[in-house]
């Protein structure tokens, strides 16, 4: 935990003082091994960051004097269009995308996405929200990326994607594309990453027809988990 993330409901009548008695308090006491008088970096979910001083500690919780004064980290100008990963990998991928500063995540259905994935508790709203919170705490950010699901490929690509691309550069990561990746992208971008094995040819054709351009990192076939971090780093960081 590089940033103690406060929820709006943590703030009471006195906005300069907070009392915690949950897992965050236990983490501060047992993992960070903080003591009364120590200072912590804090942030309010979807709000400012700042500092907190521990004013009291016990086995039941701790009290903080807080000061919020600094805007959160800037997001990347990136919408990640991601074919729903295997449920066991989804949490790690969403957390990593949050750490890297992705502004928007759209989980997309695809021919190679098993129907059962969508019903897995490992990709529930609650589970992925928790993963995003962990990503914020790791990165020192406070602003959640927006997350939504497009469970029908063709209607999304035909009816929604062209308008999403009206002010964005559309990039389709595909291992068999001939063109290499752009570098140091500064403009708003929508990056599509397929499932394990990639998008099928029909899906690639529909994505390109909607306004996307395909590119490849080379002949090596990457797992989705590796591809997400590699591509974001290559394009933006």
Question: What secondary-structure arrangement, pairings included, does this model have?
Answer:
Layout: E1 4-6, E2 17-20, H1 23-30, E3 39-44, E4 49-58, E5 61-70, E6 78-83, H2 87-100, E7 104-108, H3 125-139, E8 146-150, H4 153-164, E9 169-173, E10 189-193, H5 201-209, E11 213-215, H6 224-236
Parallel strand pairs: 1-3, 6-7, 6-10, 7-8, 9-10, 9-11
Antiparallel strand pairs: 2-5, 3-4, 4-5
Helix pairs in contact: 2-3, 2-6
Report on this model:
It is built from six helices and eleven strands. It has a six-stranded parallel beta sheet, sandwiched between helices. It has a five-stranded mixed beta sheet with strand order 1-3-4-5-2. The chain has 237 residues and is α/β, with parallel strands linked by helices. The mean pLDDT is 94. Strand 4 and strand 5 form a beta hairpin. The chain has helices at residues 23-30, 87-100, 125-139, 153-164, 201-209, 224-236, and strands at residues 4-6, 17-20, 39-44, 49-58, 61-70, 78-83, 104-108, 146-150, 169-173, 189-193, 213-215.
Biggest β-sheet: strands ordered side by side in the sheet = 8-7-6-10-9-11
N/C terminus separation: 22 Å
The number of distinct helices, counting runs of at least 4 residues, comes to 6
Query: Low-confidence spans: pLDDT under 50, at least 5 residues?
Result: none
Reading the helices and strands in chain order gives EEHEEEEHEHEHEEHEH
Main traits of this protein?
237 residues, alpha/beta, five-stranded mixed sheet
């Amino acid at each position: 935990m590089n940033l103690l993330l406060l929820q709006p409901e943590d703030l009471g009548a006195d906005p300069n003082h907070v009392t915690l008695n949950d897992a965050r308090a236990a983490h501060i006491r047992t993992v960070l091994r903080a003591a009364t008088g120590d200072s912590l970096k804090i942030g309010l979910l979807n709000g400012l960051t700042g500092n907190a001083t521990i004013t009291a500690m016990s086995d039941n919780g701790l009290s903080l004097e807080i000061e919020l004064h600094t805007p959160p980290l800037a997001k990347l100008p990136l919408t990640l269009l991601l074919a729903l990963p295997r449920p066991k990998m989804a949490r790690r991928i969403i957390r990593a995308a949050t750490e890297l500063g992705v502004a928007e995540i759209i989980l997309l259905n695809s021919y190679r996405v098993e129907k059962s994935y969508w019903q897995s508790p490992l990709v529930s709203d609650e589970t992925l929200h928790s993963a995003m919170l962990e990503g914020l705490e790791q990165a020192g950010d406070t602003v959640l990326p927006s997350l939504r699901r497009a469970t029908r490929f063709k209607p999304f690509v035909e009816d929604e994607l062209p308008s999403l691309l009206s002010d964005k550069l559309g990039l389709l990561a595909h291992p068999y594309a001939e063109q290499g990746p752009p570098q140091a992208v500064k403009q708003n971008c929508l990056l599509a990453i397929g499932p394990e094995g990639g998008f099928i040819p029909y899906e690639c054709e529909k994505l390109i027809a909607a306004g996307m351009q395909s590119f490849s990192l080379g002949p090596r076939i990457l797992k989705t988990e590796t591809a997400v971090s590699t591509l974001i780093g290559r394009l933006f960081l």
